[in-house]
Amino acid sequence: MEMQNTWETYNNKQLKDVDAFADEYRKFLDEGKTERECVDYIVNEVEKNGYRELQDVIKKGETLSAGDKVYAVCMNKSVVMFRIGKKPMAEGMNILGAHIDSPRLDVKQNPLYEEGGFAYLDTHYYGGVKKYQWVTIPLSLHGVVIKKDGTTVEVNIGENEDDPVFFISDLLIHLAQEQLEKKAAKVIEGEALDIIMGNKPVAFDKKNDKESGEEPAKEAVKKGILDILKKTYDVEEEDFLSAELEVVPAGKAREAGLDRSMILGYGQDDRVCAFTSLMAMMDVEDTERTACCLLVDKEEIGSVGATGMQSKFFENMVAEVMNLTGEYSELNVRRCLSSSCMLSSDVSSAYDPSFASSFDKKNVAYLGGGMVFNKFTGSRGKSGSNDANAEYLAYIRQIFEKEKVNFQTAELGKVDLGGGGTIAYILALYGMNVIDSGVAVLNMHAPWEATSKADVYEAKRGYEAFLRGAGM
DSSP of 212-247, one letter per residue? Predict the structure, then answer.
């Protein structure tokens, strides 16, 4: 089958729309480098769009009817939005789902130490990373520190032009003969991914300290870092115990290519699908079926925990919404979920000519090929995947062809080279129709990932068409 390049389908107005949408998307990437920051951005946007917090509606004893829009947040890391449709919810919803966590380095609970004249933060990598890709690049520090009195201190260091950045050192090439003989997985090991925080000892006034009989501080570089943290954030060393600090690449998402056709930025797996789903959810008009957008945490480590897809958060919020529409019963909740249609929106590996042997050229996503559908993901013998049925695929094809959305189908690589995971199989447990969809990404899981502007735009168009039209 011939694949049509999406760029060739656009007129001049659409080309301008593609660039404008890409600018909004890059802003989202810049402001949402952690799941907490993504949730803050999303809540601000949906509230401007007329969404109300679900818990506020419940407290006021109000009800919901067709056209009403509500959202709920779980622990500041996951969020779900509902736009109530004309049909009863027991007949099912149209659901967009994506994840907002991305591979990164997490700061440990007892992280700060001094060695060889440097102050370091000890880290533990999160998700699947090639560890050697994280050395010698500018890094920033994002997150929160929760003090014993409950005060929340927000941290964001390394993104502004006048901010300092951090880095992980690597061995100079002149001494790297033994290092270069190691396998790539061992060139840089997990315990070596420690962030250099500083190199200057705390100020020592020899005259005054000599008169007072005091000695220069031990671990003076570490103490200097602690002094800065105290003065700037009123944070003590023990406050690291209740902190969530993430180390991510510093810098803004950029247009890539001389033709500015691509976007290069951190965290596009899977924030490209989260953003396009969010925009589709806000732009869609009144729908027959209730529209839902679910953006969750922890997908990169198995969708576990209270904020991951395996938690009961989503199911609980569906029950709360159905209660406010006057439909709640345990049976109706089950009927709603089993009758729903979902696009599990996650990224797909893009064909890379430099590594052509890893792909099946007939069944791979291409940058510029439009939105991607993966009938299944999983590894090797489809292990761990949701395998969408043919009837649902045919129905999705009908919707997209009617709306003239450019799309392609793909697998995540050659059969015996493995695959990837999404949240699709978890939602499929309810018996609903689910298929993996999303955007092709080059350099997936690297600090800087690449997407096509055209694919990002088509994903948004596709998600909007799905919210309007799906309902088997």
Answer: HTPPPPTTHHHHHHHHHHHHHH---GGGGGGEEEEE
